[in-house]
Structure formats: C-alpha cells, structure tokens
Amino acid sequence: MQNSIKIIRFLITFILMPMLMSAQAPADKKIITKDETAFLQEMMAEIKESDQKYRNYLSCETMDDKLIAQMDSVYEAAGIEAYIAYQQSLGLKLDETLKDSLWQMQHAIDLQNHLTLKGIFTTYGFLSEELLDKNFFVQLLLLMHPPKDWDIPTYLQEYSTLLKAEVKAGRMPAITYATFYDNIKGKIMKEPQLYGTNQQFDVKSNKVLPPGIVDLQKTNEARKAIGLPRLKDGEYRILDAQK
Asked: What is the dihedral of CA 204, 205, 209, 213, to 10 degrees?
C-alpha cells in the first residue's frame, strides 16, 4: 500500500504538474529543496533495485542468488570477458515459460520507472552526481533500455532533444549523453555509433572491441558539438556503412 501511494504521489507531482506548468520556458527547472533531495535520493535507490529485480535472473539464466553473487564476484575480480566465460561454463538455462513471466513483470516495472524518470527530467532536469552520489549512474541505466514495445527511433529522437538541452544547460555530462545515444544506436538499433563511446563484446572472439563508427570526421564533429575530445587511434573501429 505504501509503495502504491508513493507511486501515485510521484506521478501527480512529476508527470501531471509539469504538464500544467508547460507554459514555462523549456530551460526552467525547479530548484530542489532539502525535502525533495531526500525524496529523490530515496526514489532513485528504489528504481535502482527494481530495475534489476528480474533482469539479473534473466541475464544469468538462474534464480539462484548465491550463484549470481559468485558470477558478480568473477566480474569484479577479472572483468567482463572472464564473467561471460564463467557463465557459459555453467551451462545454465531458465525454463521458457518462467522467462516469459519474469519479462512481463520486469517490463511493467520498466514502464513505471521510465515515467518516473521522465517526470524528474521534466521537473528538475538531469540530477547531479553530487545529489545522487553512488546512484548517479541509475539515470543512464534506465535510459539505455526503453520500455517494451516503444518505437525506438521515436524514443531516441525525443530523448535526444530533451537530453541535449540538459547537456547545454550543464546538468548532464556530455559523455553520459553520448553513451546513451550510442547504446541505443549500437545495441538496440544495430547501427553504427555516432560518438564512439560504447565498447562492444564480440561473441565470436570472446573479446571486447573498440566502438564501431562509420565516419571518423563526422564522429569527431559530433563529439566537438557537445564538448567531447576527438577520438584517438585505437579508440574506435571503422565499420562498413553498407553492412
């Protein structure tokens, strides 16, 4: 009951109120009070937990929390390549019916979290690392996996417009925006990255590869436009634009 009340209160505060305040200039953001700071910190902590509630089980192909913790320890000690090799060696597999049920529950959570996040951005802008501390990354985490059945090109266009304004206003780090954009382009739309920020895991070689781009000049111009330095040799791969 408390969680339901909190969700309703949040939607009223951060979704409906910004709609009523739409006559304000787009750059105007509400100053965060002390009470609101505590509320936003608590909300982001809850979002962090709920975002991985079922996703961990699905990605690890097991509901054994101890085994998942062991996988995490491998990742922390030896990195992504060792983590994937270890997971593959376990030969784990969840029942397809169970996976479908877990995804349905996670998708419902994802939609709720995205509505909450967009309400925060509309009202306060992108929240600072100073305010969120260790949960600062949660904003990017949510942005990188859109809710199920959303049109991805439209999602990318709408959030790019919103977030570029946050970069310009100095509330969102340029590298965070570029990482979001490249993740949607490369991992979801299966297209070359624009900014060259996301390393990619190659399942054939079991190696982590540099970001894949098509045009170095275009990429460096895009990076310069949001305040990022040019890419150096070894920091990118040139892909065939026809593939």
From this structure: -40
pLDDT of 79 > 60? The answer is yes
Q: How far apart are the first and last CA of the chain?
A: 51
DSSP three-state, residue 3? helix
pLDDT in tens, 194-209: 999 999 888 788 788 9
Under 8 Å CB-to-CB from 67, ≥6 apart: which residues? Answer: 60, 90, 92
Q: pTM, whole model, 2 decimals?
A: 0.79
Written as one string, the DSSP assignment of 71-137 is: HHHHHHHH-HHHHHHHHHHHT----HHHHHHHHHHHHHHHHHHHHHHHHHHHHH-SPPHHHHGGGTT
Condensed to tens digits (0 to 9), the pLDDT of residues 114-172 reads 999 999 999 999 999 999 999 999 999 999 999 999 999 999 999 999 999 999 999 99
Cα Dmax for the chain:
57
Structure tokens at 194: 């624009």
Do residues 39 and 13 touch, judged by C-beta distance below 8 A?
A: no
Q: How far is CA 77 from CA 59, 70, 234, in A?
A: 19, 11, 25
